[in-house]
Amino acid sequence: MSTAASNAPAASAAPAEGPSAAPGLIPATILTGFLGSGKTTLLKRVLTETHGQKIAVIENEFGEENIDNDILVSDTQEQIIQLSNGCVCCTIREDLRTTLTDLARRRRTGELDFERVVIETTGLADPGPVAQTFFMDDEIAETFLLDSILTLVDAKHAGDQLDTRQEARRQVGFADQIFLSKTDLVDDAAVDALAHRLKHMNPRAPQRRVHFGEVPISEVFDLRGFNLNAKLEIDPEFLSVEEHDHDHDHDHDHGHGHDHHGHDHDHEHGEHCNHPHHHHHDDDVKSFVFRSDRPFNPAKLEDFLGAIVQVYGPKMLRYKGVLNMKGTDKKVIFQGVHQLMGSDLGPKWAPEEPRISKLVFIGIDLPKDILLQGLEGCLA
């Protein structure tokens, strides 16, 4: 399967082991989360700690919380400030693409020295367009490698934020890693309920409770959330979904007592377990999984996915999968953000390994039935 969009993130799916395996590519991390969730605290830590890494932090200067007041000289005309621990901080006065291009140019000329980039989005930002910047522009794609999207969630205020702001739900849907902050301000039951709700919205992002933004650097960088081959090598089961999948549709009763052509549609999490908090929230950001042990017809699948992203792309936050394709003995690694999707050949299927395709979709009010039926229609 070739890429189904002309400007697809295929480059990001190439195997890599962090910056050393991709010479010249600068890893980039997107840090997102609502106001008060602890992004600034985490950033301060990254910018002031002695960790031996040279990091460029790009900050949206119109955020209500601003790092400048505490550790930067805020009245300078210079957009880029070099810090004593080797880090660099700059505020975006133009668009992100211009800032990244400028940073890369200064690095090439030796004016700046940094090994990776962290981009802090404002509390109300949708991380999607930020992520797309790394795939849509050839110059950026040839210089930077998008590593992951990190989302901070304020345990005390998350309930209200998730209920009232779609931006907060989007940030959860996009995440490769979720950090729960301020868990000491609420009781364990409330934290557990929140964790369950977040898991339901985005089952593929690990969650970690953090205190005052104190996160080990190793859990912030080189997570390879956009690097599927490496992800497979590290964790071959990264797409396997737990016994009861986090899917919130009561209307669908697939697979009970009849075989659905060798694949199953996953069942609503709350049907089989007693979580008193589970049914209170029917969030518009949901995830579901498609599995099949029959191979895909590459041309049919490409046509179907191409049509789907044209219609539903803005609502498709993250989607990725490992596919069994007719005509190749290698796994096809597939991923997308909004309308951009790409695929890459992965390792060969092992002789005894069951060739099962698995796709995970995370999006806003996606038409689950249309997608599942359409994918079924693409099987060889």
TrEMBL record:
Residues 1-20, 245-284 are annotated as: Disordered. The keyword Zinc does not apply. Pfam families: cobW (PF02492), CobW_C (PF07683). Residues 245-274 have a biased composition (Basic and acidic residues). GO terms for molecular function: hydrolase activity; nucleotide binding. Coiled coil: none annotated. It catalyses: GTP + H2O = GDP + phosphate + H(+). InterPro entries: CobW-likC_sf, CobW-like_C, CobW/HypB/UreG_nucleotide-bd, P-loop_NTPase, Zinc-reg_GTPase_activator. One of its GO terms (cellular component) is cytoplasm. Keywords: Chaperone, Hydrolase, Nucleotide-binding. Gene3D superfamilies: CobW-like, C-terminal domain, P-loop containing nucleotide triphosphate hydrolases. Zinc chaperone that directly transfers zinc cofactor to target proteins, thereby activating them. Zinc is transferred from the CXCC motif in the GTPase domain to the zinc binding site in target proteins in a process requiring GTP hydrolysis. Belongs to the SIMIBI class G3E GTPase family. ZNG1 subfamily. This is Cobalamin biosynthesis protein CobW. It comes from Roseateles depolymerans.
